[in-house]
Amino acid sequence: MTLKTEEFLLNLGPQHPSTHGVFRILLTLDGETVVKAVPIPGYLHRGIEKLAESRTYTQVIPYTDRLDYLAGMLMNWGYVHAVEKLMNVEVPERAEYIRVIVGELARIASHLVATGAYAADVGGLTGFIYTFRDREDIMDLFEMISGARLTPSYMRVGGVADDIPDGFIDKCRQFLDYFPTALDEYNGLITGNEIFQARTKNVAIISAEKAIEMSLSGPVLRASGVNYDLRKARPYSVYDRFDFEVPVGSKGDCFDRYYLRLLEMEQSAKIIRHALDQLPEGPIKGKVPKVIKPTAGEAYAEIESSKGIMGTYVVSDGSTNPYRVHFRRPSFVNLGYLDEMLKGWKIADAIAILGSIDIVLGEVDA
Amino acid sequence: MQVKGKGLLKGLGITLKRFFKPKVTVQYPEQRLPLPDRFYGKPEFYYDKCIACNMCVNACPNKVIKLETEAVDKKKVVTRYDFDQQYCLFCGLCQEACPKDAIKFSKDFELTQYNRPDIKIKFVKPEQVEQRKEEIRKAAAEKAAAEAAKAAQEAALKPETADKEGT
Amino acid sequence: MDNVYSLLAFVLLAGMILGSALLVVTLRNLVHSVLWLIVMFIGVAGTFLLLNADFVAAVQVLVYAGAVCIMLVFGVMLVQRPNMEHSNPINWRFKLAAPLVGGLFIVIGLLTAKSQLVVSGQEVPAQTVQALAPILLNDFVIPFEVAAILLTVALTGALLLVKEVKANGNGS
Amino acid sequence: MGTALNPSYFMVLSAALFAIGLYGALSRKNAIAVLISIEIMLTAVNINLVAINKFLTPEAFIGQIFAIFVITVAAAEVGLGLAIIIAIYRNRHTVDLDDFNWMKW
Amino acid sequence: MVDFALTHAWLVPLLPALAFVIIVFLTRPWPKLSGAVSIAAMFSSFVLASSVAYGVFTNPGFIERPLIYSLRWFGMEGFTVDVGVMLDPTSAMMLFMVSMVATLIQIYSTGYMHGDPQYSVFFSYLSLFAASMLGLVISSNLLQMFILWELVGLCSFLLIGFYTFKISAREAAKKAFITTRIGDFGMLLGLLFLQIIFGTLDLAGLAERVPHYEQYGISLGLLTLIAILVFIGPIGKSGQFPLHVWLPDAMEGPTPVSALIHAATMVVAGVYLVGRTLFLFSEVPGAAEVIAFIGAFTAIFAATIAITQREIKRILAYSTVSQLGYMMLALGVGSLSAGMFHLWTHAFFKALMFLGAGSVLHALHDKADVWEMGGLIKKMPITGWTFVIGGLAIAGIPPFAGFWSKDEILVVTLEYARQGHALGYLLFFLASFTALLTAFYMWRMIFLTFFGKEKPENHPHESPLSMTFPLLVLAALAAVGGLIGTPWANVWGKWIHFGHPHHGEPNYGLMFFSVALAVAGIGLAYRLYYQDEEKKLAKQLAERYQPLYKLSYHKYYIDELYQWFTRQVVDASAAVFYWFDIHVVDNIVNGLAGATKLSGQGLRYFHTGRIQTYALVFFLALLVITVVLAFGSPTLAGSMGGVHS
Amino acid sequence: MENLFVSMAAGIRSLLGSGGLSEWATDFLVMFLKLGAILVYILVSALWLVYMERKVSAYMQCRIGPNRVGPMGLLQTTADIGKLISKEFIIPKDADKKLFLLGPILIFMPPLAVFAVAPFGKGMVAIDMNIGVYYFLALASLSTVIIWMAGWASNNKYSLIGSMRVVAQMVSYEMPLILSIVGVIILTGTLNMSDIIHAQENVWFIFLQPLGFLIYLIAAVAETNRAPFDLVEGESEIICGPFTEYSGMGFAMFFLAEYANVVLVSVMATTLFLGGWLAPFGLTFIPSWIWFLLKVYLMIFLFMWFRWTYPRVRVDQLMEFGWKVLVPLSIANIFVTGIGKYLYHSLGW
Amino acid sequence: MNPKPLEEIIEELKTRYPGIEVAESGSGSITVTVDQLVAFMREIKEKYHFNYLTNVTGVDYRDYFEVVYNVSIVEQPHMLHIKTRLDRHNPVVPSMVPIWGGAIWQEREVYDLLGITFEGHPDLRRILLDDQWEGHPLRKDYQWEGGRES
């Protein structure tokens, strides 16, 4: 009786509590240690790029909501930004400010989910509940301004759908005033926890060179010490008018990636405060024809979404429908390095690493 | 070396403090949060306002709305306005596109149904159509009558008008 | 009265021990063997209780059922994860072994029957722990220490053995 | 003798258990199974020791002490034995005792 | 407390041992904590030891009947070894002294070793050393003592070679270890003889049996041999001529080590051992004379070397050797009290001076040459003045400690000579001349180091409190520590003595004589090295007596002699043995192996390698044998069947 | 009140005695009743603890938890159990069917058996065993095998990983658990639980053995597989560990057994460190068994508190913490306790 | 690191690679032929320090395929929009993975949805669609059945 060793294969997902959606990783394990990891996305592929080809320019907007459904505002923005670039539309100042406000709110909301889900990934469910509690406030704000909580479809080519409703600014300020205490709570419950630190510090360190080479973006890139935030590096919209800092990590481990998001939330709150203070009066929509019909051409535009660089590539053939729309989804590109990151870590670390990248499967699978 | 366990104790402190603080739970069916005005809930269709311009149908990204018209006496009568709610993205583009505010979203968000066919909302009821048709016909008839009357009047003033048309 | 019950208990326990022991050595599934082994150990612990050795019974459960068997289970899992169904085959020797052990049992049984043991008739003191401790830690302190060192050395050795070879295995 | 418990009973039980263990030790191919069988044999000895302790020298407790030592040594033995088996398995990918024959000649 | 201490005297060595274990296994990554653990253990040890000392000295019964309690370690037919604790005034004094000096030196070390990467390790060694030394001191048994003696040697080895990156340190460590091993070997032989002849190594037992050695069937000659053998151990450990060579080299270790081991504690272990076994030496006058002469010779020999050395610690080292010779001399002439008294005072002032030297080195960044120092007393007042106190003490200026003990030794030596021992006056002369030399070279060093002109290239600074505190304590003790043994009120002699408490009348003449010697020595040094700013006279003297100067400066070429001996004699004999081993021994062994191999080749095929087959065969055979035995032969069957209890 | 249960038992005994039963049979029956009462207590308290856990977690998370079924949601667990009973017990195709079925049945055995020796109040102990503490340790170690068995029999990879974790974790933490108790045993010189409680009349052992208590607490959390040591179930990593394939009542049994184990370790902690049923500050007018339960629930609250505050540790950190921190610490604790006791006796303080 | 303005860089590149087409409007859009692509990319990475590959995608222009690369510099706001045209019937392009590892999934995506083969890609498999999927949906001639809208 001669037995041969069989590789211990474990299908992490597609249905698994910690893959943040339907995502599958085929792990080859030695005991609990990951020897090889093959990420298999695509379970949520809806062909949004294909769908967009048969929609008008405006009709694509609701689909972009469904990319990163945790920060739908930013996805809207990325798309309309590209179309505006294609059409050379001037966006009124007030609209830009409103975009900044809702965009940064969306960033906070997205990071809150990332933070809480990360706490849940490493086993502390209470942190998750806390962040969701505070995210509700932002969702309420979104509901006020756009009528929807998760998928706002708020932005339009050339501006935004509606002006700021009454009471929004007060409520927003109220939230911003409350938010630091919430951050303190997260820091006390999650960040400062020794177990949490032991779980995340020095796990899956990404060097700055490697991060740039693998085109990582967003907090994942910045945690490795690369100061690359489009809001600063190539300021779009009105970001050059705000005084904020880009937090940068030092080590590039899971803890840095996690903690960076907390710091970014702080900065986002600062930006929102500035934007609310500076908010000008004026129209909310630029001069855009009712039927959008750009001349043939192409445009590629990038914004900094909560997960990283969200690029949109629009090709127009002169008709009312875009000829080709491509979304450069940050989570998707960030995931390209996952297999390398997982190697040599334990299953529990694999969860922590995946959580630290903060993916949204709607975005990965498009 | 920092003191181990400080963070652990702090965490315990936070949860214990929360233990005694007020809760955020909303007892949903009994208690409801106020909804903002812009909320996209159940779609509502105002039959009377609709001019069957097809703007909403064209605006809809997901082709949710089925609008059928019947030309009654050259006027379009909406015979069917089906809203296939299960595919609706609740983006509000139809509402935005509608020039007459005929389609609107209410604040009713409890949209679940027990049967799948029930999700599809058929806004236009046959009697409404009939009534409408009736109205149009009546109007047409009235109009025809009026026109006839007018024609009769005009006939009297014919030369002037003919002149105008001629110019 | 008491004797009858203890005899009954003995018969039951003996049946449990022997039955599960037989299952241990005959079952094809190694995991089942190990689990039956636990049953057997618990039976033996019961026997010890019957023999007024409650401390030894507890040690038996703690060490054998609680630790040794778990170690075995772990070993089983480490060496053969897939297909446990026929993990425990029998070799050609069983044909020879069966009559041998049968003979051995008969011989020992006969010898036992022939021997005349002098039963002291005294009872084992109830406070076993209090009685055991001084013996273990005074009269038998050297063997006690030796056993402790043996355990430490054995486990350290075991650890080293497993680790060392693993490193080699990776290297080759 | 009557219904009273007799040391012979336990000795016969012990002998039977020992025989079963020996059978297992001789007839199983799997090294771990052999290890298990050896444990059975050791337990058989323990029954004997404790029985003799109870019936012959109840005051001295030597039998129980010995049983405890046997258990200790058995635990060490299992640990080491398993480690050796695992080590061999990692190198040779087998736990069949008949394949462990490279210590011949 | 006192009762507790007396019954728990074994805790005194155990606590530092525990500290060693804790540091090694737990606190090594945290230097501060390690130091704290070590000092705490040492200090509690010291407190216990003080209690023990108090208990012993308040109970006169202990002088005659030491408090002994022991545990059977192992025993076999005719040979038992106990380990135990023996408390009498001598050991209590040593306990007190060792634990106190060790505590002070550990405190000192926190400052001296500050920032060393091996800080924790250093403290663990110190603890282990203290444990072994304290254990040695309270041993009731010569074997136990020997084991701890070796452990002390080991610690010494570790500590001398503590700076493993320094080749000289490693070499010195090896030298110390090997040299003392030579002595230990002789001592082990002596102990074996004692065990074989007297059947015990218990000090108490031996003390009873040795005087009646005739009953054990040995001659005086053999006993002398044994005594000499035993004495070889102390020769090695206490740096007596000719095995003194390791001690100066041992100064390569950190200064606290030098102070602790090579001044106050370990090196006096030999003296202590001789003191403990004085019942043996007093029985054999020959051996005692040998001790006395070796002691006296070592004293003068080392002193003559010391006058020319340049390195501060080396001067102190030779001074130590010299003082140890003094103690040996006292013991050799049969006075336990004088020897132990000098041991006691010497421990304080020598530790003080070593620590002071360490402080100086610390301030001057390990610049050791006394000629490059000068005027340090202004920059380092505490170090300097405590050092001066030490110098006064060692030179023998009353009322400092050294005076009383040295005086005591001179008294007993003179008495010894007066008793008509041949060459007794020679001993006295050597002792007095050594006293002169001691004062001279010590003050030479002090003048050169602390007085005179300041050297501009030095930037000394006073050491931290952790270093100066022990200096102050030790200075105080060096100043007053001898007052318990003044000739007028000799408390010391009443407590620590061998045989009858013996005390001569205060000999004012001798006292004056010794003071005069000391003052003369100091004066000479003053003339040569203080008054004469350019040191012209000193240089002239060195020029004029060039050969003598060189001889002294090169330590009489003893090291070179040893080296030559090793090269020539040992290597040659090794070559002979090598030839024998290769050609004779190996052939025999190989032949045997070949035969075994041949037979093995034939028999190996019975080995299938399958363990279960072996077991099967084994049990089959067992079955057959059992059946045959039990049922085959009736007689055996009968005996087998009847398992009677 | 104080003697409520004791006198109940006495009453039943006298009733049976007067009914003409032999003494032996009476003993047997009373013992049976006692064990039955304990069984009922365990089951009820497991149910109640599920409710308590949900409430505590909800309150710590700014929620209010179950509130629909029954007043304050008190019947929630009952409803859950009802639901689980009515659900299908799915047996995976490739599972080892016998062992798979046996798992949920056996899992309750070790805690139940141990409760027989737990002193619930003054005179309220079913079997006053001479080696009580040791018996607890011995039997507690058995549940490892049962959980492992269940996981292995499921033939699911997550279950298998969970099973391996069970074995590794529980064996590792049994060491510090046992060693932390040794300190108490040194102080009392007995393994009998009643004696241990009586030994705490002057001062509870939590004050004499703070380190021992801490180690016991941590090891107990690990032994019961609760956060932050809930690697066995680790739902964000391995779904539900060994119980992944269990559904319906099988799952419920494991779920409840976890709480039974929590009660068990809390009872032990109370007995060993918190003075058992002894009343603090001389508040003896409250019955001893109420004190006991109060302390037990305080301990349980502590466990829940930990669970809803801490993230989960990693498996290698778990092992490292167990072997490199807890075991040395507990050995040190034994050492210090021994020295302390020796000093105490020899100095006569 | 490289303070040259984008226009200058493009001018330089134009002289070195005569085959490239540059769009006029300062958008940094450059069209490179397939055979020059690797050399060109290497040069801009190594010489002009374009270290960050943002985006890789493809467009089906019915007659030909176009693969689009967006390359930028982390330290500076420069961005190049590099395009290359491929044969419609045999769309093969060298992989950029050896130059920018970040291309690995994006190229797989382009392969998956457009059917463009990347030569030298270490792991060219479908990524979003099922392995058994037939056709490449983002091609303009892709036909499908089912779905709500057909």
From TrEMBL, chain B:
UniProt cofactor note: Binds 2 [4Fe-4S] clusters per subunit.
Coiled coil regions in record: 129-156
Q: Which GO terms describe its molecular function?
A: 4 iron, 4 sulfur cluster binding; iron ion binding; NADH dehydrogenase (quinone) (non-electrogenic) activity; quinone binding
Translocase as UniProt keyword: yes
Q: Does the keyword Cell membrane apply?
A: yes
Cofactor(s) named in the record: [4Fe-4S] cluster
**At which positions is [4Fe-4S] cluster 1 bound?**
50, 53, 56, 98
Residues recorded as binding [4Fe-4S] cluster 2, renumbered to this chain, are 60, 88, 91, 94
Q: Which UniProt keyword terms apply here?
A: 4Fe-4S, Cell membrane, Coiled coil, Iron, Iron-sulfur, Membrane, Metal-binding, NAD, Quinone, Translocase, Ubiquinone
Q: Which residues form the 4Fe-4S ferredoxin-type domain?
A: 41-70, 79-108
Do you know which PROSITE patterns this protein is assigned to? 4FE4S_FER_1, 4FE4S_FER_2
Checking InterPro entries in the record gives: 4Fe4S_Fe-S-bd (IPR017896), 4Fe4S_Fe_S_CS (IPR017900), NADH_quinone_OxRdtase_chainI (IPR010226)
Name the reaction it catalyses: a quinone + NADH + 5 H(+)(in) = a quinol + NAD(+) + 4 H(+)(out)
Membrane-related topology note: Peripheral membrane protein
HAMAP family per the record? NDH1_NuoI
Tell me which family the UniProt entry assigns to this protein. Answer: Belongs to the complex I 23 kDa subunit family.
Entry function: NDH-1 shuttles electrons from NADH, via FMN and iron-sulfur (Fe-S) centers, to quinones in the respiratory chain. The immediate electron acceptor for the enzyme in this species is believed to be ubiquinone. Couples the redox reaction to proton translocation (for every two electrons transferred, four hydrogen ions are translocated across the cytoplasmic membrane), and thus conserves the redox energy in a proton gradient.
Q: What is this protein called?
A: NADH-quinone oxidoreductase subunit I
Q: Which gene encodes it?
A: nuoI
TrEMBL record, chain D:
Concerning Gene3D superfamilies, the annotation shows: 1.10.287.3510
Zinc found in the keyword field: no
Q: What class of enzyme is it?
A: translocase
**UniProt subcellular location:** Cell membrane; Membrane
Keyword list (alphabetical) reads: Cell membrane, Membrane, NAD, Quinone, Translocase, Transmembrane, Transmembrane helix, Transport
Q: According to its record, how does it sit in the membrane?
A: Multi-pass membrane protein
The UniProt transmembrane annotation reads: 6-25, 32-52, 64-89
The record's HAMAP family line, in alphabetical order, gives: NDH1_NuoK (MF_01456)
Q: What is this protein called?
A: NADH-quinone oxidoreductase subunit K
Query: Could you tell me which species this protein originates from?
Result: Desulforamulus aeronauticus DSM 10349
From TrEMBL, chain E:
**Which residue ranges does UniProt annotate as crossing the membrane?**
6-26, 33-57, 91-109, 121-140, 146-165, 185-204, 216-236, 257-275, 287-308, 315-337, 343-364, 385-404, 424-443, 464-488, 508-529, 613-632
Main localisation, per the record? membrane
Which GO terms fall under biological process for this protein? ATP synthesis coupled electron transport; electron transport coupled proton transport
Q: Which keywords does this chain's UniProt record carry?
A: Membrane, Transmembrane, Transmembrane helix
**InterPro entries, per the entry:** NADHpl_OxRdtase_5_subgr, ND/Mrp_TM, NU5C-like, Proton_antipo_N
Q: What is any one of the record's Gene Ontology cellular component terms? A: membrane
Location of the NADH:quinone oxidoreductase/Mrp antiporter transmembrane domain:
139-417
Q: Which Gene3D superfamilies match?
A: 1.20.5.2700
Which residues, by range, are in coiled-coil regions?
A: none
Could you tell me the membrane topology recorded for this protein? Multi-pass membrane protein
Taking every annotated instance into account, which residue ranges of this chain make up the domain NADH-Ubiquinone oxidoreductase (complex I) chain 5 N-terminal? 73-123
The record's subcellular location field reads: Endomembrane system; Membrane
Q: Which domain of life is it from?
A: Bacteria
A molecular function GO annotation: NADH dehydrogenase activity
Q: Which family does it belong to?
A: Belongs to the CPA3 antiporters (TC 2.A.63) subunit A family.
What name does UniProt use for this protein? NADH dehydrogenase subunit L
Tell me the organism: Desulforamulus aeronauticus DSM 10349
TrEMBL record, chain F:
Q: What InterPro entries does the database record attribute to this sequence?
A: NADH_UbQ_OxRdtase_su1/FPO, NADH_UbQ_OxRdtase_su1_CS
Biological process terms from the Gene Ontology for this record are:
aerobic respiration
- Please state what the protein is called: NADH-quinone oxidoreductase subunit H
GO terms, molecular function: NADH dehydrogenase activity; oxidoreductase activity, acting on NAD(P)H, quinone or similar compound as acceptor; quinone binding
Is this entry keyworded NAD? yes
Q: Tell me a GO cellular component.
A: plasma membrane
Transmembrane helix among the record's keywords? yes
**Homology family:** Belongs to the complex I subunit 1 family.
What is the reaction catalyzed?
a quinone + NADH + 5 H(+)(in) = a quinol + NAD(+) + 4 H(+)(out)
Q: Which Pfam families does the UniProt record give?
A: NADHdh
Taxonomically, the superkingdom here is Bacteria
Transmembrane stretches in the record are: 28-51, 99-121, 133-153, 173-191, 203-222, 259-283, 289-309, 321-344
- What membrane topology is given? Multi-pass membrane protein
Keywords, alphabetical: Cell membrane, Membrane, NAD, Quinone, Translocase, Transmembrane, Transmembrane helix, Ubiquinone
